[in-house]
Amino acid sequence: MAAMPPAGHAASLLFRESAGYLDFIGAGTLPGWDHVGLEVDGWVWESHPGYDYPGAIFQGILPHFAWDPDEAQHVSVPFESGVQRHHTAGSFRWNSHSRTVSPTPPGGFAAAPIDPVLAANMEFEILLESGSGYPSVSNPFNFTSAQQKGAGGQFTCVGLIEYAAEAAGLNCGEGFVPNALEVVPLTPQLMHWAASNPAVGQLACVPQNIKRWLSGFFDPVDFVLTDPLGRRVGYSAATGHLAEIPEMLYTGDSAETESLVILQPLSGAYHIELTGLGDNATVDIRDGMGNSVFTFDGFLATGQTVASQFTLVTAPLAGDFQEDGDVDADDLAAWGAAFGLAGAASHAQGDADGDQDVDGADFLVWQQQFTAAAAGAVPEPHVFVLVLCAFAASPRTAARARRARTTP
Predict the structure, then answer these.
(1) What does residue 224 show for φ and ψ, rounded to 5 degrees?
(2) pTM confidence score
(3) Every domain of the chain and the residues it spans
(4) Distance, CA of 31 to CA of 110 (rounded, Å)
(5) Are 39 and 161 in contact (CB under 8 A)?
(6) Using alpha carbons only, what angle is made at residue 139 by residues 133 and 140, rounded to the nearest 5 degrees?
(7) Per-residue CA distances from 126 to 37, 82, 143, 282, 358 (Å)
(8) Which pLDDT tens digits describe the chain residue by residue (408 residues)?
(9) Neighbouring C-beta atoms of residue 167, cutoff 10 Å
(10) Contacts from 107-111 at CB under 8 Å and sequence distance 24+?
């Protein structure tokens, strides 16, 4: 029977974790979310390799059904590879023909609400691609984000949603995930992180800041990455799960694919140690410009370690007078404390353009690069005059458990 979801469903991105294969590239296991769809009015748009639910013969046709526990009815989900809209939100979450058994583990489903107008625009873009296929992927390291987003006429699940968001103009046309983070394959985990933290996507509209990223993809190997301050991220049997670096996404330990993103990474020397899992290990770490800073491809016996080091040089932010990796109100205070200084000003004192003075031109650089959205809106040009007056009058500054290595 055809399901009729109730009216008034919020527009959302739906994220699901499932036992079995990894939907976004067709094989393997990724900690956390491994499939994503777009819910509009209770129905779900997605790209999928094909659901093989059992069905019953009816008038010579073999339909396939998935159970929707929310509506207490089965939904017709034919075996179809590629872009499709068959699941309701409930059947998408449940992901099973059975009324009692679901491969979605407890906590293995999440909905990230999005603006209904954005959802409608995304749905329109997906409609134009309806019927496009799902790609066959043998090596995710050779599979670009452009290929995931339909460059070859086919879409992965996360590629379809990101393509639609970009086509709908979200975040200056860069979608939920800024293009600078698409230097390794897109993953639902990465999209969930970006969609849950809108400031991440909004940085796409601030090109001066988008260069400050570090992204890594690991398959299958344990690793521990240490930054220039000695803070660590990763997993090994000796250290356990590590997440000491702030402003980062680490998908967690897995027998297979893992991914890592660090926002505003420090410049300097990074140390990495790989521990083998008895398989061919592939590692690719890149900066926000897409430049590879560390790669490894070779067999590592179980327990075998390889240690290396690489140096990351991040482009400095002219408006970051405190040189702490962001442009915020503290940098404005530093500029204000030295406003009017001429002839011998340093960058730390507020000289953004390198002319050795601290003036209005430096303020404009700070304004263009300002990213501290939580502190309030970026000052408008008319506020500039007030800021100058204020600082001219007073130059003072303002005050695992380890996951099993078998598929469940």
Answers:
(1) -135, 120
(2) 0.65
(3) 12-204, 211-312, 329-393
(4) 14
(5) no
(6) 75
(7) 11, 11, 21, 33, 50
(8) 444 444 445 799 999 987 544 444 444 444 567 899 999 999 999 999 999 887 655 555 556 899 999 999 999 999 899 999 999 999 999 999 899 999 898 888 999 999 999 999 999 999 999 989 998 876 665 678 899 999 889 999 999 999 999 999 999 999 998 887 776 678 888 888 888 888 777 777 765 555 567 888 888 899 999 999 999 999 998 999 998 998 787 877 655 578 888 877 888 899 999 999 998 998 999 887 677 899 999 999 999 999 999 998 776 677 888 776 678 888 888 888 988 888 888 888 888 887 888 998 888 888 887 753 333 334 444 433 333 433 333 333 332 333 333 323
(9) 19
(10) 108/16, 108/17, 108/18, 109/14, 109/15, 109/16, 109/17, 110/14, 110/15, 110/33, 110/192, 111/10, 111/12, 111/13, 111/14, 111/15, 111/39
Placement of tokens 């769809």 in the chain: 37
At which residue do the structure tokens 């390889």 appear?
A: 306
Residue 304 corresponds to which tokens in the numbers above?
């075998």
